[in-house]
Amino acid sequence: MRRTWMWQTFCKLLLGMSLLGGAAMLQAASLWVLAEHDTAAVQSFQHTLQAQRRQDTVSLVTLNQAAATPSPQGTWILLGDKALTWHLQHNASAPALALLISQQQTQHLNIPANLPLTLLWREAPASRQLKLGQLLMPLHSRVGVLFSAASQQQLRALEQTAQQRQIKLVSKSWDGTFPSSQVQRVLEDSQWLLALDDPSLFNPTTIKPLLLGAYRQKRVLIGPNAGYVQAGSLASTYSDQQDWLKQLNELLDMPAKQRPRSAFARYFKVMLNQQVAHSLGLTNADAAQLAEQLRQGEQP
Amino acid sequence: MRQGLRPLCAALWLCAGSSAVTSLPIGAEDLFTNSSEVPEVLTATRLRQPSTEVPGSVTVLDRELIRASGARSIPELLRLVPGMKVGYRNGNQVNVNYHGTSITEARRMQVLVDGRSVYRPGLASVDWVDIPLAIEDIERIEVFRGPNTVTYGANALQAVVNVITRNPQDSLGTRSKVTVGERGVREFYGSHGFTAGNASLRLSLGSRQFDGFDELADGSNYHNGSHAEYFTLSALHNLVGEQTLEWQVGAKQGENERPTEDFGLSDPDVEAEDYFGLMRWKGAVSTSHELQVQGYIQQQNRSQDWHTRVPIPLFDPSLGKLYQLNPQLANATVKNPFAVVGTTPEETALLTAFQMTVVNNNCMTSCNESTGTTQARTHERRTDIELQDTWRPFDNFSLVSGLGARHDRADSQTFLGGTVSNDSWRAFSNAEWRFAPNWLLNAGGMFEHDELSGSNFSPRIALNWLFVPEQSLRAVYSEAVRRPDMFEQNAVWSYQGRNMSPLISGSSTASYYQVARAPGDLEPEHIHASELGWNAYWSTWQLSSDIRLFYEELHKQISEPLRLDNFNPSNANQSRFHGAEGQLDWQASPRDRLRLTYAYVDNTASDKIDRRLTARHSGSAGWMHEWNHDWHTSVFYYGADQLNEYPFARTDWRLAKRFQLAHEQRLEIALMWQLRLDDEPLTWAENNQRSRSQWLLSAELDF
């Protein structure tokens, strides 16, 4: 008898907690999108996020507006490193998720570990790019990597994946100037080149001599991001707004304390330069299929 | 990469007429994928064509293959090309022909180094050992198998060998290499690449020497070695916008040994000097339109001086005059001066004068002799300029067009009786049209005019059907011409003795009685060639293959050997080749690469001399492997069932170890072993080695 009462009480308590939790989840939240400027792209992001989270109120705040008024309560979506920097200086205790930032940019910020802040790295994880290159060129096991002091961390993360996959990394430190004997040596000793997301090395100025030199020696480039595929890089993984919003949505559904401290894009696509692939005879390469293969490989 | 003038077509380089500049799916208002600031670098005009879309058959020898082969000369590398027949006239005169024809004069293949023709304008030959070029500086060799006058102009009759050297931007730093080996091989090479302002430069210096074949058929020593020193300086300037300026200068000097000939007291070794300068400007009008202007000048000097002791009557002026009037009578007179009679009073008078000379020089016992020097010298100069326009107005259409002019001049008292020059100009165009998603049509032509041989038009049409994305079938019809060289068309060939002692007819200079004069009425040789090909590249296995069936007819062929005592070239001959050939290149694993080539060539020719360099069966096989700890091995087999009736089979082995030293230094030690698998001479009976095997060792230091 006593046991029955206890059981009933436990069930009621459980039900009550569930209802309470559900009510909390359904409770409208205030989401503040903090961006440097109010642009069409930022507005598009805000509107799409609002459409995905009808229960919440999504408002756009520019840095100027934020500086002029006290920060309201709610969860902050920080777009870019300037928004992140402002947030850390003025509103660090508020729960926030930072997008459009790179590991390299945040290295100097010394962000305390106890903040309710999630850093979402804009760059594709180098190991994913390595796997993409391996899918495209399965018999090429020597991969060239150029790095600077700022991208050494990315290289270290890559080394483990390379070891697991029996890939030999041919890496050289480079300062981003041309012509370069380091670039030459890496191109000579490797079979393809993996571009880390390091703007001091891979930028609109360096990409031309780099791609032309690599192509002259029949070496292809993978990465660093979708923009460079248009330039002549063979392929890159990338995440667009749709992918990031999906991940953001999932994170916002989680209690702030359970959110990871940092994460790479969980959802991604593959972009392939069909013209370069065609010239290399990779006529069967299919971007969607490659992305699917990568996704399957990443499933736990 | 793009130094080649029109690398294989518009062949390899241009015109990826392909499918597809797929517009990339990036939304303009997508915060995360905005990339507008990154320029498009590998534009359609810069991309190579995939092998499935090339309007012909191409073999590419890349740097890795060149290194692994251990070959020290371009002709030896060409054994890796299906259908290529590599013969040796002696140790330093190599005759490379595609499919065959003349065993002594390989003059039906165009050879370019960075877009510059090294084919000699005066004596129509390729002096492989005299090209100022180090194997170590080669980025790759593209061989277009089949006629390609459309792209490369006259003399690209049976094939085109396009040697492309490393871009100075890609060869910074210092490299040095030493190779020593049996048969007198001693080679030194050094290069230094550096930058200066907006330019990258590379200076290469080297020397090479070898002994050639060891012994003649009778076992006596054979004097046929070679030694040479050379340098090249290559530069590339990145100018404003998309413009580049390249220039090269180079020189080579050396000596090629020749054995002593009739009446010789010393060896008539050839002093060979080559000089060249080249300049090329490239600019992009837009991402789909490029212009290129190239000019070069080169000078090739060959000089032979040797001491002679000659029977005085053979240099008697009256015998020389008699030879001009009646060569047969003069030749008969030399054999037996008193058994012939003249048919005209003039002949009789000359004959009488000659008989007096014979008597006065005691020819009843042994003729009096005179000693002196004889020489054979040629100076050949070529100046060439060309404008080329590459335009891709639509995704499915591209056009390569151009204009060129050339001035050739050859000066040789011995072979031409003075100076001969020839001005020519050319206009060419090739269009590539993807008229349906899987169908590609190439049509083009070259119109050429030169002073000595008139005008010609050479067309080509090719259809490629990509029946699956990685495979294509092609049908190609092409025509090409070879213009008679200055020697064939304008020869006045004679040998003069100088500083003769005792005097001959009162003079210290005298001419050998035989003089060869070209008839001067030769027309260009013509080839009509058809081929059906199957090309495949399975990217998953990294396996590429190409198989083709061919039929080639060579008309108006000038086959007669050019001899001083019988100089009668004509257009009377013809040859026909048909057969099949294939190549396969397979990256079998990350550490293994396999390569196979084979050619079956059936040859019929109206003159048997044109059948001698055609092996019915020939081919090569190679395996390259990378071991742990930077050890590399390779083994190659080369075989031909007959080269001038002698079979040829050889294996080449190479074992290399690379060491990473401190401060970015790298050392490679390589041991090479060549082993002939037969005991036959190579091409000619006098080309013999004492041992089947040859060991070589090389050390290369990069820093």
Radius of gyration of chain B: 28 Å
Largest sheet of chain B: 22 strands, antiparallel, barrel
Q: What is the spatial order of strands in the main beta sheet of chain A?
A: 2-1-3-4-5-11
Described by the principal axes of the CA atoms, the overall outline of chain A is elongated
* Largest interface by Cβ-Cβ < 8 Å: A-B, 60 and 57 residues
- What is the radius of gyration of chain A? 23 Å
Poorly predicted ranges of chain A = 13-26
Helix/strand/pairing category of chain B = mainly beta
Average pLDDT metric of chain A: 88
Classify the fold: give the CATH topology of the largest domain in chain B. Answer: Maltoporin, Chain A
Kindly report how far apart the N and C termini of chain B lie.
Answer: 23 Å
Number of E-type strands of chain B: 33
**CATH architectural category of the largest domain in chain A:** 3-Layer(aba) Sandwich
CATH architecture name of the largest domain in chain B: Beta Barrel
The CATH class designation of the largest domain in chain A is Alpha Beta
N-to-C order of helices and strands of chain A: HEHEHEHEHEHEHEHEHEHEHEEHH
Question: Beta-strand percentage of chain B?
Answer: over 45%
The fraction of residues assigned to DSSP E strands of chain A is 15-25%
CATH topology of the largest domain in chain A, what is it called?
Answer: Rossmann fold
What does this structure look like?
The complex is a heterodimer of chains A (300) and B (703). With 300 residues, chain A is of the alpha/beta class. Helix content of chain A is 46%, strand content 19%. Chain A folds into two domains: 30-121; 126-238 and 268-298, Rossmann fold (3-Layer(aba) Sandwich), CATH 3.40.50.2300. The longest helix of chain A is centred in the first third of the chain and has 25 residues, at 2-26. Chain B is mainly beta. Chain B folds into two domains: 51-309 and 375-702, Beta Barrel (Maltoporin, Chain A); 319-366, no CATH class. Chain B contains eight helices and 33 strands. In chain B, the strands form four sheets. Chain B has a 22-stranded antiparallel beta barrel. Chain B has a five-stranded mixed sheet with strand order 1-6-7-4-5. The radius of gyration of chain B is 28 Å and the shape is globular. The model of chain B is unreliable at 1-27 (pLDDT under 50). Chains A and B meet through helix 2, helix 8, helix 9, helix 10 and helix 11 of A and loops of B.
